[in-house]
Amino acid sequence: MILIISFADNEHVRRVTEHLSRPHRIVDIAWFPSRMALTALSGSDGLTLRLDPADGGAIEIGEVGAVWCRRLRPMTIDNSVTDPVARMFAWSESNEALQGLWHSLDAFWMNPPLADEAAQRKILQLKIAMEEGLAIPETCITNDPAQARSFIDAAGTTKVIRKAFRNIAEAPRPTATVEPADLTRLDAVRFAPVIFQHFVAADLDLRTTVIDGEMFTAAIRSDADHQVDYRQGLGTATVTPYDLPDDVAEALRRLMDRLGLKFGAVDFRVTPEGEHVFLEVNPAGEYLFACDRTGQPVPQAIAACLERHDTGR
Hints:
Number of strands: 16
CATH superfamily of the largest domain: ATP-grasp fold, B domain
Number of domains: 3
Protein name: MvdC/MvdD family ATP grasp protein
CATH architecture of the largest domain: 2-Layer Sandwich
Domain ATP-grasp: 126-307
Strand content: 25-35%
Low-confidence stretches: none
InterPro entries: ATP-grasp, MvdD-like_ATPgrasp
Structural class: alpha+beta
Largest sheet: 5 strands, antiparallel
Keywords: ATP-binding, Nucleotide-binding
Mean pLDDT: 92
Distance between the termini: 5 Å
């Protein structure tokens, strides 16, 4: 059986399940613990693990052969638990039990939980990318205002961009160029590290979706108003299929292997000179915006990967 850890109203998930012929179930972390029971029961045959969602039949974890972990929602503690300390304790205990279940699951994971967690770290991504021969932008990550100012000054006429490690809904921070007004606020860097990078002038942005070593790359040609971050200009961009050069594709496979990822959405920029510059890999990145315009069969490839590795019942 294929277990999908996500939520049913996720369009990326729905599009993949259309192509699954093997038994599969979707589990939403938001059901736990208020609307889903977890049981680990020892016996003569070992430890039996199961989940019992309130709105569906039991899931015997021993029957799961492949897992797709995609965009989780937070756990939901029952509203009747009102004391803040009690709610914190309930959350902690629930998290420990759920994580223990996941790490006990002997199955193919896309992506393994520990690898997924580590691979989100931008510093680690850049380090491994360089070691594997991928070009990266000139970068300074710091909470030292003097270091930040020195990096920006040394760039000279080259534009510098600033971006967050992770965009959170409560405090969105778009990728943007460092403007003169930002320099007057540079001392605020001491409150939290910022990623500064030289702006990479590009003919194309690339989004490469990697699925168990298989790659689907879309080339994105943006208009003049969206040269810093193509995501804001997808409505006016031209999106076409693209073939990564062999040396770049092989370096990317090595990067994915070292990060332990079976799935990743990878961003590159192609300079006017033809250099492919690695920007980042998102272990749960979106792909429909690209494959729907290129015709590349990404949902089908994810479904095929899961079915190929599903050794359960």
